[in-house]
Amino acid sequence: MPEDAEGLAEFAYELGLLKRVRRSGWWHAGVSDPESIADHTMRAAQLAALIAAEEGADPARAAFLALWHDSQETRTGDLPHTATAYLAKPDPRQITVDQTQGLPWRSRELVRGAVDEYESRQTLEARCAKDADKLDMLLQAVEYRDAGVQRTDGWIDSARKDLYTETSRRIAEAAVNMSPLSWRDR
Amino acid sequence: MPEDAEGLAEFAYELGLLKRVRRSGWWHAGVSDPESIADHTMRAAQLAALIAAEEGADPARAAFLALWHDSQETRTGDLPHTATAYLAKPDPRQITVDQTQGLPWRSRELVRGAVDEYESRQTLEARCAKDADKLDMLLQAVEYRDAGVQRTDGWIDSARKDLYTETSRRIAEAAVNMSPLSWRDR
Amino acid sequence: MPEDAEGLAEFAYELGLLKRVRRSGWWHAGVSDPESIADHTMRAAQLAALIAAEEGADPARAAFLALWHDSQETRTGDLPHTATAYLAKPDPRQITVDQTQGLPWRSRELVRGAVDEYESRQTLEARCAKDADKLDMLLQAVEYRDAGVQRTDGWIDSARKDLYTETSRRIAEAAVNMSPLSWRDR
Amino acid sequence: MPEDAEGLAEFAYELGLLKRVRRSGWWHAGVSDPESIADHTMRAAQLAALIAAEEGADPARAAFLALWHDSQETRTGDLPHTATAYLAKPDPRQITVDQTQGLPWRSRELVRGAVDEYESRQTLEARCAKDADKLDMLLQAVEYRDAGVQRTDGWIDSARKDLYTETSRRIAEAAVNMSPLSWRDR
Amino acid sequence: MPEDAEGLAEFAYELGLLKRVRRSGWWHAGVSDPESIADHTMRAAQLAALIAAEEGADPARAAFLALWHDSQETRTGDLPHTATAYLAKPDPRQITVDQTQGLPWRSRELVRGAVDEYESRQTLEARCAKDADKLDMLLQAVEYRDAGVQRTDGWIDSARKDLYTETSRRIAEAAVNMSPLSWRDR
Amino acid sequence: MPEDAEGLAEFAYELGLLKRVRRSGWWHAGVSDPESIADHTMRAAQLAALIAAEEGADPARAAFLALWHDSQETRTGDLPHTATAYLAKPDPRQITVDQTQGLPWRSRELVRGAVDEYESRQTLEARCAKDADKLDMLLQAVEYRDAGVQRTDGWIDSARKDLYTETSRRIAEAAVNMSPLSWRDR
Hints:
Oligomer: homohexamer
CATH architecture of chain A: Orthogonal Bundle
CATH topology of chain A: Hypothetical protein af1432
Shape of chain A: globular
Strand content of chain A: under 5%
Largest sheet of chain A: none
Radius of gyration of chain A: 17 Å
Number of domains of chain A: 1
Mean pLDDT of chain A: 96
Number of helices of chain A: 10
Largest interface: A-B, 65 and 65 residues
C-alpha cells in the first residue's frame, strides 16, 4: 500500500495546481489578478449543497460533484469562452481517467463516478452542481462590479440563463439586486 | 420564499470573503502573497473524500464536513498559531449559528449539522476531514518549499503529528519524499 | 551585549511581519489585495505628527506612539470588526510585554511605554495618534473608492466618528470632498 | 483654517503614494512583487528608535527623521542604484519644500526641519535614522533570501558597510547569523 | 565567440528586468499593481507596426524602434512625470551605449541605431513608434477606467496631444468612445 | 476611414489582453504569479533581433515575427504542455484571420503575413523568432530558479532542444552558466 499512498499524494499535488490557475474569463472582463479555480470551486460546492437542500436533493452528493467539476483544468487550463470556436472541448471523463490512474481503486472509482455523474446532468444532484457553477460566477461578477469592474453584464446575463432549478433562479434574482456586504449590517 | 432566496444569497456573499482572506500562517513562514482560505478548503475537501474512501468512511460526507471547516473565518479572519496565547479560540458553532440565521431551515440545519459534527470529532468522517485539513497544509508547505521558502519544517512537522487515520499518515509520508511535479512525468 | 543585539534583531524580524500581514477590513470592503499593516502605520505616524503640530502637542512623540499602535498584530493578525462579537480583544500591553522580553532594557521600556501611553489615551499625543489611525483609514477608503471600490461609505463614516481633535475633524472634512490627485495639479 | 485642512489632506494623499511605489532595488535582485516604500519606512523608523535608545540618543526624534527619509519618492520614484551613473541625485530638501508648500506653517517647518536634519547627518539622531535605513534593507534581504531569492549578498554586504553606530553594527552581525523566524520559537 | 554569447545572454538578462519594473504613472493614478514596462512595450510595438502600415511607413522598422524605446529603464526605472522638475532626463543614447558594450558589433550597432533613430524623431517610423507609445498609454488608461479607476482623464488627455500621425489621432478618437470588450461581441 | 480606426482600436484592445493572461507553464513549475504573455513577447522579440543580427538575417523582420507569435492567445489562452494530449492545437492562422477581420487591408495583410511566415518556419527570420521564443523561456526559467523555484530543469532542458541557430545554442549555453545579475557588476 505505500504505492497507493504515493498515488494519492501525487494526485493531491496535481490538484494543488488549481490554487494557482486563474479563471480566464475574468481577464477578458478586465480583472488583472482574478480568483483561482480553487476559489471558484469552494463556493460552487457550498452553493450546490444549499441548492440541493432546498430542492430536496442530497446536499453532500451535490457538493461532492461540484468539488470535481473543474478538476480537469490542471491539464488544460481554464479555456476561455472565445476558445470554443477554435478547438473541440476536451472530454472531462478522459482527463479524469488519466488523472486517477495511479489511485487505489476505491478513490479512483469515487472520482470517476463523480465526474461521470456531473457531466451526464441526469441526476438532480448533478443539476444542482451545474447551477452552483453558474451561480458562483454570477455572485463573483457582482463582487467584481462592486470592486469597480464596469463590464460584468455579459457574465451576469449568461449565468442567469438556463438554470435548472427554481432555487437557483431565485438566488440569482436576489443576488443581482443586493449588496454583497449586506450580511455585515445584520 | 423570496426572503429565503435573499438569505441564501446573503450567506453566499459572506462565503465569498473566503476567496480573499489569506492563510495567515504562511505570512509567518515568509510567503508574501499566500493562498486564500478557499484555496485551502477546496483541496482539504478533496483530500477528505479520498481519505474516507480508503478508510471505509462516507467520502461525500467527509468532503462536506471539510467544506465548512474554516467557513467561520469570514468573521474572525484566520487566527495565526501565535494568537492562541492572547485570546480564547472563538466557538465555531456559535459563529455558524449567527451566519446561518437568515437561511431557510433546511439549509440552516444542514450547515449547522456539518459544523457540529466536524467540531465534535466523533465520527470517522469528521476525523478524515480533520486529517485532510492538516494534509493540505503539509502538501502546501512542500509546494512552498519547492518554490523557494526555506523554513517550512515547522509546518510540515506539525501537520504530521496526531493524524487520526493510517491513510493520512501514509500520504504524509509519501508526500514529503516526493516531487510535487511527479504527476507531469507519467 | 551580543545577546542584546540578538534580541534587537529578533524583534526587528518579528516587526517585519507587518509588511506582509494585510489590513483585513479591506477584504470585507471587496479589495482583493489590500495594503499591509506597515503601509497603514507609516502614514498614520506621519499624520499623527502633522495633527500634533497643529494641536500644539509634541509631533515626534505623537508619531512615535502611532508607530507602535498595531505592532501587536504580528501575533494576532488584524482582527476584523466582525470578530468583536466572538472574542475578547487581546490586551496590547500584554503582547508588547512578551514581544519585548528579549530587548535590552532601554529599548524594552521605550516600546512598552509607547504602547501604554497610546492605549491609555490620556495624553494629547495619544489622542493625536488615535485620530491619525482613523484618518489614514478614511484617506485609504477614499483612495480605494477612487480606484473603483463601491462600498467604502461604512469605513469613511466610522472613521469620522469620535475624532478627538479639531484638526482631525477638519482634515476629514476636507479629505472626503477632494481628489486624492489634487497635489499633482499644483 | 479650512484651507489649512485642505493643504494637510492634500499632503497626506501625496504620502499615500508611498504605499504603492515599490522598492526598485528588489526588482534587480529578482523579486517580482517587492515591498512598498511605506513598508520599508515603518520598520526603518522603528529601528531608528531602538538604535537611538541604545546609543543614548532621542528615540522619538530618530524615528521621526526616519519617517520622512524617503517621502520625496512620491515625486521621483525610488531611483535604483544603477541610475546614479546617469542622473544627478535630486535634492530631497528642494522636493520637500515643494511638497509642504500648502501646509500650515507649523507642519511645514516640522517636515522641512526633519528632512534637513536627516540629510545633514550631523546629529546622532540623523545617524541612527540613516543606520536604520540600511539595517531594514539588510533584514529585508535576509527575509527575501529565506523566501528563496538567491542573490541577496550584494544588498547584505552594502548594508553592512559604513554604519555609523556600534549598535547597528552589532544588530547587523546578529541578523545575518540568525533565522527570521526565531522569535516564534520562544 | 563564446564571449559574444555571454555578452548577448548578459544583455538579455538585463532586459528581463523590464518584465518586473512597473509603469510608475499608474501608481499616481491609483492603480496598486500596474502593468510592467514589458507589457507596455509589446503593445506599443504592435501599434507602431499598424500605424506605420496605414501611414505608408515600414511597419517592421517602426515596431523595432518601439521595441527599444523604454529599454533604458532597466538602469533608471520608469521616472514619473512629476520627477521632471527635480532631475534632468537621462540621455537614452548614453545608457544604450553602456548596455550594449558587451555585445558583438552587429547586435551593438543594431540596438544603438534603433535608439538613435527613435530619439531623433526624424523618420516617419520613429514618429509612428512615438505615437504608439502614447496610444498604448491611452488604451491602457481606458482599460483601467473600465476596471474602476476614476481619475484617468489626465492620462487620456495627455496621450491625445501632439500625436504626429493622422492614423494615431483617429485611433485615439475611436478608442475613447468604445468598449475595450467590443471585439468579443463580433 | 473612421471605421478603419475603430477596427484598429478594437484589435489593439484585444491585444491588451496579453498583458493580463499569464504564461501557464510557470504555474505548473510552482510559480504563483508568473509573467504575462506580453512580458514574454517583448523579450522574445528583442532576442529574435539579436539572434538574426548575428545570423545574418533581417533583425527587424525576425523581431516582427516574434511580436505576433503568441497573439492568438487572446482567444484560447496559453495552453499548457499537458493539454496536448486532450485537444488538437488550434490553428494560429485561422485565429489570426478572425482577429484581423476588422482591420484595414494593409494592417490585415501585414499581421496575417507575419503569422503565416512564423508558422511555416521556412525563412531564417522565422527560425530566429522561434529560437527566441525558446530562449526567453530558458532565461526566464533561470531567473525563476534564481528567485527560489526548485524544479525548473524541465523547462531549461526543453528550451535547449532543437534550437535552429548556432547563435541561439551558444546563448543558451552561456545563459545557464551565468548569473542573471552579472550585468550589474560591470
